[in-house]
Amino acid sequence: MKSLQELRFDNRFARLPGVFYSPVRPTPMPDPYLVAASPEACALIDLDPRALRTPEARDCFIGARLLPGMQPLAALYAGHQFGHYVPQLGDGRAILLGEVRNQDGSFWELQLKGAGLTPYSRDGDGRAVLRSSIREFLCSEAMAGLGIPTTRALCLLGSDEEVYREQIETGAVLVRMAPSFVRFGSFEVFFYREQYRHLRELADYVLAHDYPALREAAHPYLALLEEVVRRTARLVAQWQLVGFAHGVLNTDNMSILGLTLDYGPFGFLDRYDPGFVCNHSDHQGRYAFDRQPSIGLWNLTCLAQAMLPLLDEDGNRAAELAQQALRGYEPALVETWADGMRAKLGLREAHDGDRELLGRLLDAMHRQQADYTLTFRRLADLRLDDPAADGPVRDLFIEREAFDAWARDYRARLRAEGSRDAGRQAAMRAVNPRYVLRNYLAQQAIERAARGDFSEVERLRRVLARPFDEQPEHDDLAALPPEWADQISVSCSS
Ligand code: AMP
Ligand code: MG
Questions:
Q1: How far apart are CA 157 and CA 142, in angstroms?
Q2: Which residues surround ligand 2, an ion (CB under 5 A)?
Q3: Which of these, 222, 342, 440, 470, could form a disulfide with 347 (CB 3.0-4.6 Å)?
Q4: At 328, phi and psi to the nearest 5?
Q5: DSSP helix/strand/coil, 383
Q6: Which atom of ligand 1 is nearest to the CA of 91?
Q7: How do residues 274-329 score in pLDDT, each as one tens digit?
Q8: How does DSSP assign 144-193, residue by residue?
């Protein structure tokens, strides 16, 4: 466990050519205070969590003081936003400080989000508000608890500085961590500018920095694309399994490492509604929950297009290779999803008819407005020879008989593989979370935090770090959402 001063910073991204980024100085907000910290994220960089409570940490992470080796910069990228290419985006309110190598030899980049203007801020103010920063802090750490690839959140600092959105809010700085923050849009910018040399430099950097093993492949750039396709497919499948809607799947929010990146108006499903749109600014429903799998492929197609000049000098051959890589998407997604769903249902074997059985459950959940998380969690209580134990899951369906009809076939299917209650129940509870960051839970923590009480943020962080454990003292966080949960409006404004 190290103190802040003992961390050794470097910044390899800063050694890329100047066009890749702009050096920037953070603009600290006045009188910062610590709102939240993640001991799990601290452990990733060998940092003693107590170090975050020191004045040095506060100065450093509000952006008022640099540690040796830090080279603050804002990275250039572009991206497709809601289907349209935007030639220049870039870190408008994120500042990369540098990277730390931990004792296992892994690298973690540290980024301040909300630390002031950069050359890419466009019309923005370079700030992030406390409300959305709490959401990103909690969701980053909750996703990690769920075992879903994600950027991490080290800590969150607040300030009373006013920030103007639809209303006046207060500002915050989130300290994010990831092995790399390179996005699909980082490649797109050089493709559309026809700066193919820089495209190659970026690909070489990503290979060296994040995928060193792929450099041994016969065609490293193709191998890179194939690996990003696989990781993205698995990531999206994991979102679908847990009922997570990202909300803004623009290509500038797609990580080259297959991490969940840039938490904005995300949402976890309450009642199961496949067409759920969590972002109230997304009027077309482009990023609806059930469209995420096809959007993942659409975004990868943008990346593949941007990588064409790297794949082959011959345009036709390059396009063929890109198509070949993209064909890996659907099988990887379907396999992860199907295996995951089988595990959620407590099935060890794959039988004909499983797809149909699952389809009927999802259909009933949709029509009967059953809660997504709780249906799967409570399904683990089902016992083969004791229908009375179905009570809690059955009660989630408006017409209880809709559940009963399905449960008869489910029991028959369980018997067909000789399923035993005890083993199945434990296995199901290990994959079906009891706790997810429902919008209304985040909202309650945000309202308290706005009054200066950060205890609910801390409680949620702790509970969501172990989402599969019972934690009976926090039963209230595993309850059905209240009526007002439907009325919460989450937009891009953050
Ligand atoms: P997002 O939709 O949050 O991923 O952001 C899209 C683009 O807008 C990125 O280039 C961000 O850096 C930029 N951006 C968003 N909010 C702000 C802000 N308040 N100040 C400056 N840039 C911003
Ligand atoms: Mg973004």
A1: 19
A2: 253, 262
A3: 342
A4: -75, -10
A5: strand
A6: 12
A7: 999 999 999 999 999 999 999 999 999 999 999 999 999 999 999 999 999 999 99
A8: HHHT--B-EEEEEEEEEEEEESSSEEEEEEEEEEES---BHHHHHHHHHT
End-to-end CA distance of the chain: 34
Query: Which domain-ending residue is among 181, 206, 228?
Result: 181
Q: Which range (223-227, 271-275, 347-351, 485-489) has the least confidence?
A: 485-489
450 lies in some domain: no
| 360 lies in some domain | yes
Please choose from 122, 132, 165, 266 the residue to mutate so as to test ligand 1's pocket, defined by most ligand atoms within 8 A of CB.
122
Tokens of 477: 């966080």
Q: 19 and 110: one domain?
A: yes
Q: Which domain holds residue 71?
A: 4-181
Cα angle, residue 446 at apex, residues 442 and 447 outer, rounded to 5°:
120
Residues 54 and 157 in one domain: yes
Say if CB 346 and CB 428 are below 8 A apart: yes
Centroid of ligand 2 to alpha carbon of 83 (angstroms): 15
212 and 358 both lie in a single domain: no
* Residue 391 lies inside a defined structural domain of this protein: yes
Which position among 10, 46, 104, 252 bears the catalytic label?
A: 252
Structure tokens at 377: 């969690």
Is 230 found in the same domain as 313? yes
Q: Are residues 153 and 208 in the same domain?
A: no
The upper half-sphere exposure of residue 24, i.e. CA atoms within 13 Å in the direction of its Cβ, equals: 29
pTM over 0.70: yes
Atom of ligand 1 nearest to the CA of 127: 19
For residue 31, indicate whether it is catalytic.
no
Per the model's pLDDT, the better-predicted residue between 490 and 181 turns out to be 181
Q: Verify whether ligand 1 is closer than 6 Å to residue 121 (CB atom).
A: yes
- Note whether 171 and 84 are same-domain residues: yes
Whole-number pLDDT of residue 206? 98
The Cα–Cα gap between 32 and 391 comes to 49
Which token pair is 358? 């699952």
Nearest-CA residue for atom 11 of ligand 1: 92
Among 157, 181, 205, the domain-final residue is 181
Number of domains, the chain: 3
Atom of ligand 1 nearest to the CA of 94: 12
For CA atoms 67, 68, 69, 75, the dihedral sign is positive
